[in-house]
Amino acid sequence: MEQEPHLTESQPATPGTLRPGGRTAKVRRAVLDAARDALAETGFHALNMDRIAASAGVGKTTVYRRWGSPVGLVTDLLHDMAEQSLPASDTGSLAGDLRANAELVRATLTDPRMGAVFRAVISAAGCDEECARALAGFYRTRLDEWTPVVAKGAARGEIPAGTDPTELLRAVSAPLYYRFTVTHEEVTAGVAERAVTAALAAAKDGVFARS
């Protein structure tokens, strides 16, 4: 029986810099989808490049040439996740926007597949500096995306001018990640609402004002 041909690419590239169109994009999409599934199923330490290549229908030499290692795969996957993330909300109020932000984080962490992926990536970042930089870059991108909602809230007079948007947004998501990664408690809608209420109250009191 004739085997189905593998997707291949001949030009080398650094993870996260592949051109957006054509066969390269199809190869990247197939490999990153396979890597995400493998992370969810077996975690970072069991990530196997040969199995990912087979699952993606891509030649294993292509996978090794383009991504080099499981760390390279995770790094590019984080770049892709940042690119694909939903844009910030615009509900008309800072409280509404912060609730939307908290719910997005909560929904991601409690999703059976994506929660497992994030747990694996966070674990990888704890033992590999390149993964740690990629994870930090992912969150920096997401924080930058949501920064305007804080500026709009300040412009409406909901919080003091000069409130640090990054610190406020971190205060919203930090309790959720603490339960997810440290105590392994359920991340409920009530937890998300309390995080928003506490962060917003602190912001109104000037806790996050830039010095």
UniProtKB/TrEMBL annotation:
For region Disordered, the annotated ranges are 1-24
Q: Where is the HTH tetR-type domain?
A: 25-85
Q: Which InterPro entries match?
A: Homeodomain-like_sf, HTH-type_TetR-like_transc_reg, HTH_TetR, Tet_transcr_reg_TetR-rel_C_sf, TetR_C
A Pfam family of the record is: TetR_N
Where in the sequence is the signal peptide annotated? none
Keyword field: DNA-binding, Transcription, Transcription regulation
Residues in the DNA-binding region are 48-67
The entry's protein name is: TetR/AcrR family transcriptional regulator
Organism listed in the record? Streptomyces zaomyceticus
**Lineage, opening ranks:** Bacteria, Bacillati, Actinomycetota, Actinomycetes, Kitasatosporales
